[in-house]
Amino acid sequence: MNRKSFVKGANPYMPLWEHVPDGEPRVFTHNGEERVYVYGSHDTERAEYCGRDYVVWSAPVTDLTDWKCHGTCYKAEDDSILYAPDVVKKGDTYYMYAAEQKGSRIMVASSDKPWGPFTNPVLTELGFDPGVLVDDDGRVYAYWGFCKSYCAELNEDMATIIPGTLRENPIPHCRAAWSPEDDAFGWESFFEASSPRKMFGKYVYIFSRRVNEPVPELGVYDDCNGFLSYMWSDWPLGGWQWGGDISFNGGEILTDAEGKGIMTFRWGNNHGSVMEVNGQWYVFYHRQTGLNEYSRQAMLEPVDAVLGKNGKVWIGKVDYLDGEPVASRPVEMTSQGPQVNGINAREWISAGYTCHMHGGQETAWIEPVYEQHEDVSAKVMNITDGLTLGFRYLQFGLNTPKNITVVMNTEAKAAVSVRLDTPGGREIAWLEAEGGEVTVPLKSGVTGKHAVYFVFNLPEGKAEMDRFTFDD
């Protein structure tokens, strides 16, 4: 085997063996060190959502590829399954809102460190998927709900609601089998995953949106809750105005001959938020692996975030006219994540970093892995004839490599066309394999940053792709 290092800190940005969805990012300075901390649920049950503990990961604000696990920070006293949490700091104390009993009992626990352990849990009056905002004046607001949103101001105890402040349906909700029978439906379509933020002096309510109408430009034609969306206001408990969609976890979006979008990754539930880290805003979200939604992984992308002249907050991929924001759309889903200049093409790149799995005769998926070692790789399973795997983006540098090496398993002879920039782009390599590791020379040079696609020709049988790399 070619002895070289494996890519780390790409997308997903945690190790491929870790499964932390619902990630709420927070930047805290502790003992003089400023780091971004991610608090999420923990997909360890494998046969259902989440797990029975929370772990904390963090990275220095200067390097979002260098993630460290601080270990377990909270477990429910009754060993129940924990759904999505949130953590805020007020004064010198960190408060974790822990969603015990699958989110039906919200506890607030405290710590003097951002990584916990969080102890002395107290029952709150909050509900499913709590998100909390400590305002500039020290007042505290909470947001929660499932197919029906709520918000309120909290007392000094950080657990109970100040009488008269509770608001129901501050955002119109979606139509779903779980939605209440009321008249609060709206195209804004609140589903779950409340996450408040303060940006540019405005209040921003981020949530998972379940669209009930087609979104042809993204290839959505049925009910879909793969979106992270937002509304904004000048007031923390109401007056919300539509902002837009920040993230969609349906992979790279292709465009067909009629101008309609085509998803290239299996969308699934989405949950996360935005955070400014070292002067750059990012959206933190999650994607699906496996054949269900029980092995999700943490993802991030840089986003534009700007305040328009009319007071609107713009977040996502923003379009400008004469320097003024005029439109926005979800940012692209990539393999590179925080490696904004592209993944190093000369390291081992796990097939599990793909952000594009399209075509084929059957459904392909990323194998969930749990073995905790440095060089773990997640395979793409059930590859059939016509499947395309895409990686956005790789960095080749100033000098073109000579060879490409691919590690894969095949049931019969397979041919793979390696293409640049688009699935039908310039072919830079052609390889044939019957299992194991194969190395072939490149047909033409490549330098700089590019997307790379593998197009599979499998007249018979199936294949699994493990990893690949480029060599000088």
UniProtKB/TrEMBL annotation:
Name recorded for this polypeptide: Family 43 glycosylhydrolase
